[in-house]
Amino acid sequence: MTRLKIGVIGAGSISEAHLNAYLHNEEVEIYAICDLNEQRAKDKSAKYGASHYYTDYNDLLANPEIDAVSICTWNNTHAEIAISALNAGKHVLVEKPLCKTVEEAHRIQEAVEQSGKLLQVGFVRRYAPNTQILKQFIDNGELGTIYFAKATCLRRLGNPGGWFSDQERSGGGPLIDLGVHIIDICWYLMGMPKVVSVSGNTYNRLGNRSNVNNLSFYKAADYDASKNNVEDLANALIRFENGASLLVDVSFTLHAKKDELTVKLYGDKGGAEIEPELAIISEKYDTILNVQPQVDNLSFDFAAGFQNEINHFIDSCLERKTTLSPVQHGVEMMKILCGIYESSALGREVNW
Ligand SMILES: NC(=O)c1ccc[n+]([C@@H]2O[C@H](COP(=O)([O-])OP(=O)(O)OC[C@H]3O[C@@H](n4cnc5c(N)ncnc54)[C@H](O)[C@@H]3O)[C@@H](O)[C@H]2O)c1
């Protein structure tokens, strides 16, 4: 069997999830790893058996042996690396968010169209087993028309610092980092209706709260609390052409009693939750039913989500499947995220 040769660009925290999943796919050879930090690239290559390592992604892309790449770098580099990779004839799996701006998103889309190569956006929650189960129920009309969704991802203490809290490299705070996942999963399950307006608010009232003791939280590979110019809370109301609406709130830090992750969808025949755990709500014979599917993991299964995402990417590179998260969906998500930031800055609803 000939195996697809993969290069992973960016060897920080999330690259572990990509590399582990590639390792468990028989049709893949982990061929090269690149990071600005040479020691990190070298260590990861040794750990995952990659025969090549680089510190400049252009050198990795110049290697004609490589068929496809995962981009796991800071958000501000996604556009330039994705476009260079597509132009070098590689298929691309790019971590979320697709990039930082709508203009960059359009340039990536053009590069996909001109190169004829595949680009999959890392909307990993679409590939998670709980989402896939619920999608079958939705596709078979069990919820009817979904007219309202509500998604919350509140961290009471969880600004990861480093590049995440540096606007220039991240493009924003919890909205672009966490909001992208929960907005996307609602939008995907609602059938990706056309957005007509967004109204958003962002706040930076609490800072990163690096002063807090005795409570641990997720940190970037290069944690640094000295720079923080991103929002710590965002909320938004997104309206769709079919009359449906989506209400969302996300934070890096908030005076909340505990962290909260909830994703709920309401249709005219039934409802559903996928976070904190999968549940389907319906009515039969004048009785309300709360249905709990009997499955291994009712919540987001991190390892299975990434394995499915990577397997789907490889199947799509080999033209056996069509990606569930193509570049067009990444472009639409950038319009929503940037629309929310714009609405907040203007202090009014933004329409399109
Ligand atoms: N899907 C998910 O659930 C999920 C979770 C975490 C992060 N992410 C995304 O993954 C990306 C990386 O996040 P992370 O948590 O791994 O960050 P990280 O800071 O742990 O790692 C990023 C790595 O990229 C390297 N890097 C940056 N620019 C580079 C360049 N031009 N060339 C080569 N290497 C470069 C850095 O040196 C660092 O090692 C981000 O886009 C983030 O939004 C996705």
Beta content: 25-35%
Number of helices: 10
Radius of gyration: 20 Å
The tally of beta strands, per DSSP, is: 15
Describe the global form.
globular
The helix fraction, in percent, is: 25-40%
Q: Would you list the SSEs in sequence order as H and E?
A: EHEHEHEHEHEHEHHEEEEEEEHHE
**Lateral strand order in the biggest sheet:** 14-13-12-11-7-10-9-8-15
Could you characterize the architecture of this molecule?
The structure is a single chain. The protein has 352 residues and is α/β, with parallel strands linked by helices. The protein has 2 domains: 4-124 and 307-325, 3-Layer(aba) Sandwich (Rossmann fold), CATH 3.40.50.720; 126-301 and 332-351, Dihydrodipicolinate Reductase, domain 2 (2-Layer Sandwich). Helix content is 33%, strand content 25%. The strands form 2 sheets. A 9-stranded mixed beta sheet has the order 14-13-12-11-7-10-9-8-15. A 6-stranded parallel beta sheet has the order 3-2-1-4-5-6, sandwiched between helices. Strand 12 and strand 13 form a beta hairpin. Helix 1 (15-23) packs across helix 9 (302-317). It is globular and about 60 Å long. It starts with a strand and ends with a strand. The mean pLDDT is 98. It binds nicotinamide-adenine-dinucleotide. Nicotinamide-adenine-dinucleotide is lined by residues 9-15, 34-37, 40, 57, 72-75, 77, 95-96, 122, 124, 162-163, 177, 220-222. Residues 132-272 form the GFO/IDH/MocA-like oxidoreductase domain. It comes from Paenibacillus sediminis. Residues 4-123 form the Gfo/Idh/MocA-like oxidoreductase N-terminal domain.
